[in-house]
């Protein structure tokens, strides 16, 4: 029987950060993972360059049943703290857009940085571990794999969400939470492309690859970013963002011309070029292949601009500023970046991430019901929640 002060399950972003902090406090720490190598999601994130944080990160960028829960951790370990760590390791990085910070070379730099820090903190890492049971008696946790049993005072669950099952994602953390009497809020895939209804697929799959700046809105939340038509449905950052707010059966309202008032534009084109066709004028605002599809769908009639009256201009403008898509569903965990829902924060201390009713048991990272927007926010939550747990476990 091995004895440890702390066992952290999950060598991803949150688990590595927590293990480093606990190790730096002199705790004897073991990091266990079911995969072959640590930090696999970090390695493939941000197209291999890891969007490791966002300079504008604040609690407003996170979804949770309790919006206040994330505030404590995010304020005690901020994006600036993580940036300072990246700078300490002389890792090149840059802002891509909207405050999103990416590695200049490779996401490998972030994993190597964390492994260097873990080594310096004397953290032991055991990979390819299949945990069969976890039990608790007399203030001690026993974690059993087919090979051996290990005991610890503090058990930290950092096993992540359900997205990308082929990368080792399991429901372990959610099941363990339930085993110890914590509530798990309903789970669903988020930051995920939305799929077509069959009727929309027949029309729009021909323009897959077309992208345009839009605002996408669902349930009163709106994101201004690019939208991409694909063979399967809608994607691009605006759609990934709105997927976190979309529920089956909801519409997604897309403003296809967020920066130009279509009615004013058409009225001015009508004055300047009365003989010009409506589709030619619209192609100055929107991708030509999309305009052709809108014509096919009878969103407008192609005629000289001079034939439009103020009412028909308004109708056309209204449809482009509020085009309604009714997605069939999402692409699911196969392509989702994150899982919404998870361990109910009501059962956790926001200061330490420890279970209120189960001393010594901690939950951090994506397994908790805190989900960030696209843009480096999910890693910031992993770093911050891992860091705070690391101060107490
Ligand atoms: C393709 C992709 C790209 C992404 N890009 C970004 C990005 O650029 N920026 C950003 O902020 N976020 C990004 N994300 C989201 C981000 O990766 C996650 O939110 C973050 O990794 C969560 O950290 P975590 O430590 O909680 O979980 P994870 O990083 O998922 O780590 C969990 C670890 O636990 C292990 N594990 C699971 N079950 C068990 C078990 N039963 N026993 C032992 N170990 C187990 C897993 O193998 C894994 O190593 C991306 C996600 C995906 C899928």
From TrEMBL:
Does this UniProt record's set of keywords contain Zinc? no
Keywords for this protein: FAD, Flavoprotein
Q: What is this protein called?
A: Aminoacetone oxidase family FAD-binding enzyme
Q: Cofactors per UniProt? A: FAD
- Keyword flag Flavoprotein: yes
| One Pfam short name | HI0933_like_1st
SUPFAM superfamilies attached here? Answer: FAD/NAD(P)-binding domain, HI0933 insert domain-like
Q: Start and end of every RsdA/BaiN/AoA(So)-like Rossmann fold-like domain?
A: 5-391
* Matching InterPro entries: BaiN-like (IPR004792), BaiN-like_dom_sf (IPR023166), FAD/NAD-bd_sf (IPR036188), RsdA/BaiN/AoA(So)-like_dom (IPR055178), RsdA/BaiN/AoA(So)_Rossmann (IPR057661)
Start and end of every RsdA/BaiN/AoA(So)-like insert domain? 188-338
């Amino acid at each position: 029987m091995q004895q440890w002060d702390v066992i952290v399950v999950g060598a991803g972003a949150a688990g590595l950060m927590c293990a480093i902090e606990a190790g730096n406090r002199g705790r004897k720490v073991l990091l266990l993972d079911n995969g072959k190598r640590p930090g696999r999601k970090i390695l493939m994130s941000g197209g291999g360059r890891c969007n490791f944080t966002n300079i504008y990160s604040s609690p407003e960028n996170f979804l949770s049943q309790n919006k206040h829960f994330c505030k404590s951790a995010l304020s005690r370990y901020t994006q600036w703290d993580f940036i300072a760590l990246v700078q300490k390791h002389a890792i090149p990085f840059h802002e891509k857009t909207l405050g999103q910070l990416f590695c200049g070379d490779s996401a490998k730099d972030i994993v190597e940085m964390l492994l260097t820090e873990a080594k310096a903190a004397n953290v032991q890492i055991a990979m390819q571990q299949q945990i069969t049971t976890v039990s608790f008696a007399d203030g001690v946790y026993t974690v059993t794999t087919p090979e051996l049993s290990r005991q610890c005072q503090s058990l930290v669950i950092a096993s992540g969400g359900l997205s990308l099952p082929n990368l080792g994602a399991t429901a372990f953390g959610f099941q363990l939470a339930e085993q110890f009497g914590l509530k798990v809020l309903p789970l669903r895939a988020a930051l995920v492309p939305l799929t077509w209804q069959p009727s929309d697929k027949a029309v729009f799959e021909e323009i897959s690859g077309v992208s345009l700046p839009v605002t996408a809105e669902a349930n009163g939340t709106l994101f201004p970013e690019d939208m991409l038509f694909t063979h399967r449905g809608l994607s691009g950052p605006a759609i990934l963002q709105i997927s976190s707010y979309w529920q089956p059966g909801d519409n997604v309202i897309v403003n296809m011309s967020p920066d130009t008032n279509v009615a004013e534009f058409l009225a001015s084109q009508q004055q300047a070029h009365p003989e010009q066709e409506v589709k030619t004028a619209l192609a100055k605002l929107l991708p030509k292949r999309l305009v052709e599809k809108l014509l096919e769908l009878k969103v407008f009639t192609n005629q000289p601009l001079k034939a439009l009256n103020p009412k028909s201009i308004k109708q056309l403008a209204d449809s482009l500023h509020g085009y309604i898509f009714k997605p069939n569903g999402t692409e699911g965990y196969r392509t989702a970046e994150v899982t919404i829902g998870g361990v109910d924060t009501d059962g956790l201390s926001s200061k330490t991430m420890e279970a209120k009713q189960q001393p010594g048991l901690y939950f951090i990272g994506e397994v908790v019901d805190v989900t960030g927007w696209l843009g480096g926010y999910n890693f910031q939550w992993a770093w911050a929640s891992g860091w705070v747990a690391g101060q107490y476990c």
